[in-house]
Amino acid sequence: MNIPCYHVNAVQCRGYCSSTARRYLRWDQHVTVSCPASKSGNYRPRLSSPLGAILRHNLIHSLSLRYLLIVPVLLAIATAVVLFQHSDTNIYMLYSQCHARSRVPWLSHVPLLGTPSCFLVSFFGEAAASLRSSAILSVIFSFLAGLLTVSTVEAARICNGPSILIAYPTGLWLIFDLIGGAFVWELIIIPAFFHRSRKIITSRRQDLPISDTLSTHPILGESMRHLARTSETLAIPVAVALGFVVPSALMLTHTSPITVLIWLLFPVWTTFFRQSVRKLTTLPLARWSESWQDSLHLESSTLALARVYLLPILCSVVSQILLLWSLYQPDDRKEMTRSTLKFITIDAFFVGLTVLYWILVEAGWKVAAVMVFTSTVLGPGAGICLGWVYREATLNLTGASESGVTVVVVGGDPRGREEGAEAGEDTPLLR
Fold it and tell me: Membrane-spanning regions, if any (predicted)?
């Protein structure tokens, strides 16, 4: 079946193909749409069965934002209830000691911030005061390392640039670390990502006049999922390594008020090292300084992908081995250590559930299953990283999955709209 298409750009043709196939074709038919927007003129939608369409039907495409946020709100309520049920007098006694300035005198005597700062330092210090608790914390920290890497990667993508909450995560990570815990992910970060995804999907479904749109447009550009700069593939792993992994290792191996205080400020260190590396790559003396400023689709480069995600995966595997080893050692946790560690473990558990729901909504149950399986085998840090790579391979923000139609454009150069180049025979324009 051949259908002429009179739209002048590929995105409009994409919508035309989807609607045409939805109206006129059975699920087992194929259609070729003749379109002047590409040199070859062939658009070949691949149609699937209704069952296959349902299996690939992600919630982010069909549910409005208000319905998507029901689960995070319920998770926040559950977090508050569980934390309240597992609270005990040890936590209150710890705060009372700081308020009486009997713990960490050099910190507790600081006006205004002395008591809460002393409490946070003492809280995490007590949580890491034994071998078993340090092994458990290493697993939690490896998960946070993977989550921090994923969060920073998403902050560096072109499509998330207009969202302040996503593109500048330092403040939210500080609130998460110092005050909010899982509530920050459940009530702020995840809703921000859902809101951004819904906005992109809604905009790309509309027949907008985008023939002159740059490829780096944050919503309609073909490079919207690219990192804004290639230098991010160096800046992100260095920032995570020096800003989070090193302070975490210092805190677990040499627990003291100083090392705990340094660890508590890891969002600041991470941002500082990331910005510093990005600045260094712009210096004229830096080799390949120009190429570092080009955009890059991270998942298309195996070397860049390994550079970004290798460290949190290795940390996750090592922490998993350490935890299994510690289970065969005598449990040396004291009562205060058990109380504080229980709070941290519950909080991390609900963060994990929230991230799992995030992946389930945007990428489907298969990606969520991959994350759960790899987290069980290699640790939660590896699970979030490997699951995120798989998520990117299956992510669809065009809404085409709603009808079970995937439009493949043959011909066209992604630079065509930006530089006026003609479409080529071998390069796919849209997928």
Answer: 65-86, 106-124, 136-153, 173-194, 234-266, 308-328, 340-361, 367-390
- Report how far residue 138's alpha carbon sits from residue 144's, in angstroms, rounded to the nearest whole number: 10
Single out the residue of 398, 427, 430, 403 nearest to residue 201, CA to CA.
Answer: 398
Q: Find, among 146, 188, 129, the residue nearest to 344 by Cα.
A: 129
- Which residue(s) pair with 157 in the sheet? 227
Query: 14 with 407: CB under 8 angstroms?
Result: yes
How many CA atoms lie less than 13 Å away from 155 in the CB half-sphere?
24
pTM of the full structure: 0.79
What does the domain layout of the chain look like in residue ranges? 2-55+404-419, 63-77+130-210+219-334+345-396
**How crowded is residue 369: how many other Cβ atoms within 10 Å of its Cβ?**
15
Q: For residue range 42-82, list pLDDT tens digits in order.
A: 444 444 444 344 345 688 888 899 999 999 999 999 999 99
Instruction: Give CA–CA dist 96/262, Å, rounded.
Output: 23
In angstroms, rounded to a whole number, what is the distance separating the alpha carbons of residues 55 and 76? 29
Closest CA to 14 of 425, 407, 416: 407
DSSP 227: B
Cα–Cα distance, 142 to 313 (Å, whole number)? 8
- What pLDDT, in 10s, does the model give residues 221-244? 677 888 988 899 999 999 999 999
Measured CA to CA, the distance from residue 214 to residue 27 in angstroms comes to 34
- Residue pair 44/428 in contact by the 8 Å Cβ criterion: no
**Between the CA of residue 91 and those of 87, 119, 129, 235, 410, what are the distances in Å?**
7, 9, 15, 38, 63
